[in-house]
Write a structure and sequence with these properties.
By secondary structure, the protein is α+β, with helices and mostly antiparallel strands. Helix content is 47%, strand content 7%. The protein folds into 2 domains: 74 residues, Glutaredoxin (3-Layer(aba) Sandwich), CATH 3.40.30; 110 residues, Glutathione S-transferase Yfyf (Class Pi), Chain A, domain 2. It binds glutathione.
Length: 215
């Protein structure tokens, strides 16, 4: 398997995490987001959306972190620990994958991109400023929603971690990079601490030092 990724990309990190939890080997191809390599012809031939991550497994090319998580959890997790097989369980996990791709992406993700990288990301040209206030409102609301969900249970979809937790973890844990505090959310903080204890957990820049880009 080949993963097109970037070390500071939380969407890439979701995939790195699940590959590690499942003990899967892969070849890493770094796409330099800092020099706009994602918008140059060679990479656009791989992903016309100009985004990482992309996973290539034999003839299959997957261009979205959620699609990749579902693929890995169905293709390579024989015990189906990361994606329930019952219909209601599958739908509940999908609800949180959609939350990660919408509320989280356009909330904490976007606030982090603007505050720590100076760009709005989300496929917009670097000349765009982005709206950090809008992103912070969505980000704060996302945290409130997650706080409520995690107040009565250890994991987003019940008593065991699933790809719902993997999909939501990086950008929620990186929220302080967008100047969104986790202080008002003790249940979210406890979930982050629990997630970091999972066997095979990997860190990424910003998770331990949210100010590393602000120096
Ligand atoms: N829906 C996509 C979003 C991927 C995404 O936002 N990737 C960012 C890095 S984390 C990217 O490559 N952005 C490049 C750009 O916006 O120019 C997914 O979940 O994989």
């Amino acid at each position: 398997m080949k993963l097109y990724e970037h070390p500071e990309s939380g969407n890439s990190h979701k995939v790195r995490l699940l590959l590690s939890f499942l003990g899967l080997e892969y070849e890493s191809v770094i796409v330099d987001l800092m020099t706009d390599e994602q918008h140059q012809a060679p990479f656009l031939a791989v992903n016309p959306r100009g985004e990482v991550p992309v996973l290539v497994d034999s003839d299959l090319v997957l261009r979205d972190s959620m699609a990749i998580l579902v693929y890995l959890a169905t293709q390579y997790d024989e015990r189906r620990q990361w994606l329930p097989t019952d219909n209601a369980g599958t739908a509940s996990v999908t609800e949180w994958l959609a939350f990660a791709a919408s509320w989280i992406q356009f909330g904490v993700f976007t606030a982090r991109a603007i505050v720590s990288f100076g760009i709005p990301a989300n496929g917009l040209p670097h000349t765009f400023k982005g709206d950090v206030e809008e992103a912070r409102v969505r980000g704060t609301t996302s945290l409130t929603i997650m706080e409520k969900q995690l107040s009565g249970q250890d994991w987003l979809c019940g008593d065991r971690p699933t790809i719902a937790d993997v999909a939501c973890f990086p950008y929620i844990a990186l929220a302080p990079m967008g100047d969104i505090s986790l202080e008002p959310c003790p249940a979210v903080q406890a979930w982050i601490a629990r997630f970091k204890q999972l066997p095979g957990y990997l860190t990424m820049p910003g998770l331990e030092d949210p100010d590393y880009r602000k120096g």
